[in-house]
Amino acid sequence: DQQVKQNSPSLSVQEGRISILNCDYTNSMFDYFLWYKKYPAEGPTFLISISSIKDKNEDGRFTVFLNKSAKHLSLHIVPSQPGDSAVYFCAANPAGNTPLVFGKGTRLSVIA
Amino acid sequence: ETGVTQSPTHLIKTRGQQVTLRCSSQSGHNTVSWYQQALGQGPQFIFQYYREEENGRGNFPPRFSGLQFPNYSSELNVNALELDDSALYLCASSLGATSYNEQFFGPGTRLTVL
Question: Which of A53, A99, B4, B86 is buried most deeply by CB count within 10 Å?
């Protein structure tokens, strides 16, 4: 049973437009949510996070929105750049001292 | 500051063999977690080592075992390899056993079991 679901395996967006990556979760105990970006031949790198007490967190071009009632979060990238092309993983845990549960990832391609 | 490194980069083994993967933590980090990322899946937590002791384990059988050394480098050992063990194995280091949300990942070791 997948507790963190990324239902879109891939997404293609034109440079300069908005990229929206979605993530759904089933475990209502999840309290903290993170997005990681992964380039080929590199490990995942932390991008942005949000705790359940917030519904939005922004860092430069990246914004994460959390809808707890829908158990849904999304990552917005504006404007998208070719260097953003990577696999994006959504991850969650009930607390910082418990292992992360990852989704399967969404491959974002930003076309120049 | 040195990042997380892993060796080897790639490895090919046959079913039934044993394999050892290695990880060097980021400078100053005392905790290492190992993850398995199968093709088309997200990373799945195997276990964590903190101060040379296993400090949490995911849903993996005992043939997956680990070690952490006094310099905080770590090994992942897998015995009796199965075809389904083919995956990218990632290690992640952090400072403190409760720091899953501040982990730094290495580039991974790609294991192929034939």
Answer: B4
